[in-house]
Amino acid sequence: MEFDSAFEPDFSKGLVPAIAQDAEDGEVLMLAYMNKEAWDKTISTGEAHYWSRSRGRLWHKGESSGNTQKVHSLRLDCDADTILLTVTQKGGAACHTGRRSCFFRKLENGRVSICSEQVFDPEKVYGR
Q1: pLDDT tens track of the chain, all 128 residues?
Q2: Residue 99 backbone phi and psi in degrees, to 5
Q3: 8 A C-beta contact, residue 90 and residue 25
Q4: Which residues pair with 99 in a beta bridge?
Q5: How many CB atoms lie within 10 A of CB 66?
Q6: Strand pairing of 49-52 and 57-60?
Q7: Considering only CA atoms, which of 23, 63, 18, 61 is closest in space to residue 36?
Q8: How many CA atoms lie within 13 A of 26 on its CB side?
């Protein structure tokens, strides 16, 4: 993936939110965080890498499940402190719960519903 080196998030305050959006239909799949290392790895490989706050380390999306994200484009907001990735989600699921999107619960008209399909069983994939 080629890019202009002047196009870079402002990491001066620490981690930067990174929103992954499906390149084809625009659905928001997940929110994670990037540091400079994750940004550079994403640029160099063309696949999404994030900083895992729970693991305290660099995380290649899909390293356990195989459900990687091929990056089509990267956008920065006006302050360069939020990243928007358009991706193709391999395996169809972005969420560790096995759903297509991490945003699978919806409150609408006073009712909560599930609005994202179950793509895989996390017990079978992660053994937990």
Answers
A1: 555 667 999 999 999 999 999 999 999 999 999 999 999 999 999 999 999 999 999 999 999 999 999 999 999 999 999 999 999 999 999 999 999 999 999 999 999 999 999 999 989 988 86
A2: -90, 155
A3: no
A4: 118
A5: 10
A6: antiparallel
A7: 18
A8: 0
Instruction: Kindly state the tokens that stand for 26.
Output: 């625009």
Nearest-CA neighbor of 37 among 45, 46, 49, 19? 49
Answer yes or no: are the C-beta atoms of 112 and 85 closer than 8 Å: no
By the 10 Å C-beta count (0-12 exposed, 13-18 middle, 19+ buried), 81 is classed as middle
Token output for 41:
């790895």
Structure tokens at 71: 């990056």
Q: To 10 degrees, the CA torsion angle through 31, 32, 37, 43?
A: -30
Q: What is the DSSP track for the chain?
A: ----TT-----TTS-EEEEEEETTT--EEEEEEE-HHHHHHHHHHSB-EEEETTTTEEEETTTTTS--EEEEEEEE-TTS--EEEEEEEGGG--STTSBS-S--EEEETTEEEE-S-B-S-HHHHH--
